[in-house]
Specification:
The chain is α+β, with helices and mostly antiparallel strands and about 450 residues long. The chain is about 35% helix and about 20% strand. The relative contact order is 0.20.
Length: about 450
Amino acid sequence: MRIIDILIVGGGAAGMLAAVAARDRARKLRIPDKDFSIVILERNRLPGEKIRISGGGRCNVTHAAEPDELLAKGFLRKGEQRFLRHALHAFGSDDLLAMLERQGVRCEARPDGKVFPVAGLSASDVVRAFERILEECSVRLEYGCMVSSVERTENAFAVRTDDRTFRASVLILATGGVSYPSTGSRGDGLFFARRLGHSVVRASPALAPVLTMDTPPSELAGVSLRSAAFIASSGGKQTSRRGDVLFTHRGLSGPAVLSLSREVAELFGTQGNCLLFADLFADLDQDALQETLLAETRRSGAKMVRKFLQHCPDGPPAALIPFIMRHAGIPADVQLSGLERGKRISLLQTLKRFPLGSVKSVPLEKGEVSAGGVSLGEVNPKTMQSLIVPGLFFAGELLDYAGEIGGFNLQAAFSTGWLAGREASGEGGDRRRESGDRRNEF
């Protein structure tokens, strides 16, 4: 049996781009396709399952920005920024969009920078484009391959499935994290990495909804707080994120909640409790908000407080106003002119720190991505190669990083996959030349 030159475990965004980059590099090295084998092992019946369901089938493929801006906006932890810098410069959002457009999948950026396929195209079109590219690159895909073990032998990796063993000179693990296990991301790659000697940071939720101890009132389910500041507080520590907050039947979701969920899970895990709040007027501090309230009182003192809130620009949704009034201790029929100082202060405090409840859980399996994974300190950021096991590369979500909502995580998967594949191809070519391996086709 011939040793496979590059074997990739995982056919998602990172694994597919790793295969494409590996072939691109091999061709630049003038290695004929027939003499350089690239194989993807995918546990599902089709590649890119997580891409297919992303964005409700619309697929936020990337974020429109230069690499340094992508890092600054999408990865807020400095260590993760440093680690991903080489990958995002090696293969950025422009490279990805050009690759898709060559396959007839045109994408466009929204005002907020999120990039989606144009109207009439979907996530499935994105995956089909990559399938065509893989075919053009003479990449062999093995579907329904449930890898049970990975071992490093003297001169190769032995990757076992239920009924076969694959031997490879170079191995790329791109199995994803542990979010959305129905798509095949079940943490297998983390187990394999640990068995090969790597440290693995415990997986935790990211871009996940937050469930609260007391579920929101039924009349608030489906109501959104627009451009609020979502605040999490515990043990004297506080963190926040700006964006929309959505009330659900079980807790909270929406862009701001998903974005902050990683920090919420960490606070809840370390402190044992975590209180949640919303700043309903995030563009105004309390003094400025008070001046707005007093100015309106001077103009229209007979106006009901609830009517003032209802018609206030960028104010809270109408469905929330009765709850605001109740929490502030203000009767529904109070006029602005009748709002005594103590009640005014109570209202202002409520608007700037409206209580959303306490955390019950941040479900790992509901996250769009997971944090945690293979320790970044054990992977060369310039190549994605293991610093512990020669010939072993990593790509995608099984690495210990997690980005913001908005296409950043998919781009990081594409970028780390591309870098890993490119560098792995050079490694595989070197090993082939050293060994003079020209055994029969597998």
